[in-house]
Amino acid sequence: MTTPNKTSRRKFIAQTVKGGLAVTVGLSAAAPLLQSFTTKENFTPGIFTTGFDQQPLPYAYTALENIIDAMTMEIHYSKHAAAYAKNVKDAAAAEKVDMTKPLEDVLSNISKYSAKMRNNGGGHYNHEMFWQCMRPKRENPQGPVDNAPTGKLLEAIEKEFNSFDNFKKQFAEFGKNRFGSGWAWLYINKENLITIGSTVNQDNPLMDIAEIKGYPLLGLDVWEHAYYLKYQNKRADYIEAWWQVVNWDYVQQRMEARG
Ligand code: MN3
Q1: What is the 170 CA–ligand 1 centroid distance (Å)?
Q2: In what helix (H) or strand (E) does residue 48 lie, and over which residues does it extend?
Q3: Which structural domains are found in the chain, ordered by start?
Q4: 10 CA distance to ligand 1 centroid (A)?
Q5: Could you give the 3-state DSSP secondary structure of residue 9?
Q6: Among candidate residues 201, 200, 62, the one with its CA nearest the CA of residue 120
Q7: What would the pLDDT profile of 174-193 be if each residue is shown by its tens digit?
Q8: pLDDT tens-digit profile of 4-38?
Q9: Which pLDDT score, from 0 to 100, does residue 142 have?
Q10: Distance 24 CA to ligand 1 centre (A)
Q11: How far is the CA of 178 from the centre of ligand 1 (A)?
């Protein structure tokens, strides 16, 4: 199962998340949730499925200060990302898309839609996920906090990349080497392996026409608007600092929800 289809979404629901911890529930218990997910009247976007409206930023503009400054966050969220959200709705209205269904349905068939849908649908999805992929830097009066994944996610990363440090190095290379604008990704590929890559502009691995295909777990925005005010042309410095605000709990939850 490499692209989100009905079966994988069912798994999303079967393994729901409560109180920040992944809780696996039995299929019978999941049935009403499944119904609400697939019944268009009841579909509501969440942190693992994306609707067409922009959701509130999960923290204040100032929350990531020293890594991502408040001005960058405000412009990025309220101007850039808000524009993608507005434009994807315009495209969806023009192309008669049922906006009560998840945006993922459109992205996995994006070759059938316009360039406006590709750019803005991708832009909206990528940013909605990007905000969730970050959290305020954790402070420890005893010394620096090593912001790293744990458990099954760490195991999967170490299995594929030998070490977390090696993974970070290779991921950063994808971010640095993406010419122009785009994203670096940690994702689950067709072989169900955790891997890394990058996409151009606002493409993402869900798209049937993307350079890499699979289910994204972690995305890094390397467009200049994501870092230019603070880091100017130094994209590598932005990426290096960004590791401190990655929300590994969320990344792990995406992996567990994917199954
Ligand atoms: Mn952006």
Answers
A1: 21
A2: none
A3: 21-28+67-257 (3.55.40.20)
A4: 30
A5: helix
A6: 201
A7: 999 999 999 999 999 999 99
A8: 444 444 444 333 333 333 333 333 333 333 333 33
A9: 85
A10: 33
A11: 14
